[in-house]
Specification:
With about 425 residues, the chain is α+β, with helices and mostly antiparallel strands. The protein is built from 15 helices and nine strands. It folds into three domains: about 120 residues, no CATH class; about 120 residues, Tyrosine recombinase, N-terminal domain (DNA polymerase, domain 1), CATH 1.10.150; about 170 residues, Orthogonal Bundle (hpI Integrase, Chain A), CATH 1.10.443. The strands form three sheets. A four-stranded antiparallel β-sheet has the order 1-2-3-4, with helices on one face. Strands 7-8-9 form a three-stranded antiparallel β-sheet.
């Protein structure tokens, strides 16, 4: 028995030569293969929310990209998640697009379910509409889709690449220049854009991300024959320098623990941040923290708390150890995590730093950086840190090793630097 949700009524155009009893039906299904388990089970496993189109006894499934645990789906809706409304909107958007596609195809005599997930839109001339349908069908997490939608919205706002025939190298470069000016970045000369490789002056990590996603969409369009040649080939956008990652030392953490602040919400947020520093939990995994997933292990040095779960972002299982100050923070929280949005959480951290702690501007992700660098600084192997953070690729974990090495160099610079006069005697001999 499937779990269905009708996000809104699907209305079909019945003005055609097909009997009503042969009209396709559309339903939204959770965990079609019956694999999902509860989030607090010994082996938590997510299930996929899919759209099922049925026609003449046959079925076609289209992914919504939403993956949740069994206890996060109730009465046809996503529950018990801080991003529940976003996921419901994602499901509704996918259902709308599938319904629109089915309505378009019903007018054809050769209607088949295989054509339902086709990326083609009713008017193939419109590039932005096709891009949105293409992203809808991508098997990626919702945050990635949202980033693609941002690129498509920017292209639509730019207004010069609305149709496939408008996707030219000149318009792509003009879009990049417009994007930099639109973001408030100083305008650069057009000449620099028309070189094969963009100059350092236009290097920008945001623009690089836009370029990467646009390149993928155009390449898919070229492979399907919608665009002749590949106008984005030969255009290179250098990523530029990212902001330096901030992490706290144990002295910083001890200082945070003893700061007395008024207000229940602010106190809770500081303890939640300390929990992140002592566990490596990302914000979304912090919001889904469950006491039942904690295990107490006794060893010769005492007891330690082990936490097992699956990352919401990547669905990768992770296994982490809570540091003592994180356990103390949990005790102050009575082992329950108050629910916040990431914007509200970071806003309270900002207010706290402005009034009581001006050393750093703390954010949720700094807690995760801190845990990784503390572990590596204390000799924990890279592969172990990767498992604790739930990274898919160890290359992501290696970023933190570079941070540790840089901190060592910075702190030892004054002590280890030898002046030239100390290396040589007056006659120049060592």
């Amino acid at each position: 028995m499937y779990n269905y949700v009708f996000v809104f009524d699907t209305i079909f155009d019945t003005n055609m030569a097909r009997p009503l009893n042969e009209l396709p039906s559309i339903k939204v299904v959770f965990d079609r293969n019956k694999r999902a388990t509860a989030s607090n089970s010994n082996k938590p496993r997510t299930g996929l929310v899919q759209i099922v189109v049925s026609y003449r006894g046959h079925h076609k499934t289209v992914s919504t990209g939403v993956k949740i645990y069994a206890d996060e789906w109730k009465n046809g809706a996503v529950v018990r998640r801080s991003d529940a409304l976003d996921l419901q909107e994602q499901i509704a958007t996918a259902l709308h697009r599938v319904s629109k596609r089915v309505n378009e195809l019903q007018h054809d005599e050769d209607f088949t379910l295989d054509r339902v997930s086709n990326n083609k839109v009713s008017d193939e001339r419109y590039f932005c509409d096709w891009c949105r349908n293409c992203v809808d069908d991508m098997d990626v997490v919702y945050n990635t889709k949202r980033n693609y939608y941002s690129v498509i919205d920017a292209i639509s706002e730019h207004g010069k690449m609305l149709r496939f025939c408008d996707v030219t190298k000149k318009n792509i470069l003009d879009f990049y220049e417009w994007k930099k000016v639109h973001n408030g970045i100083s305008k650069v000369s057009k000449e620099s854009f028309y070189k094969k490789s963009l100059s350092d002056k236009v290097s920008d990590s945001t623009l690089s991300n836009y370029h990467h996603k646009l390149h993928r969409l155009i390449t898919i369009a070229v492979s399907k024959g919608y665009i002749t040649g590949n106008p984005i080939d030969g255009i290179v956008v250098k990523k530029g320098k990212s902001k330096e990652r901030i992490f706290l030392s144990m002295n910083d953490i001890e200082e945070l623990e003893i700061i007395v602040v008024p207000g229940k919400k602010t106190k809770s947020v500081i303890d939640m941040f300390l929990l992140q520093c002592g566990s490596g939990l990302s914000f979304i995994d912090l919001m889904n923290f469950r006491k039942e997933r904690l295990e107490i292990r006794d060893n010769e040095n005492g007891s330690m708390y082990v936490y097992r779960a699956s990352r919401k972002k990547t669905n990768v299982d992770f296994y982490t150890i809570l540091l003592p100050f994180a356990v103390r923070a949990l005790e102050r929280l009575n082992w329950e995590i108050p629910q916040f949005t990431v914007i509200g959480y970071n806003a309270l951290l900002y207010k706290f730093c402005k009034r009581y702690y001006n050393k750093y501007r703390l954010t949720s992700h700094i807690g995760r950086h801190t845990f990784a660098t503390l572990a590596l600084s204390n000799g924990v192997r890279m592969e172990v840190v990767q498992k604790m953070l739930g990274h898919k690729n160890i290359s992501t974990t290696e970023i933190y090793a570079k941070l540790v090495n840089k901190r060592i160099e910075d702190e030892m610079a004054g002590l280890a630097t030898i002046k030239p006069s100390a290396l040589h005697s007056e006659d120049g001999q060592p």
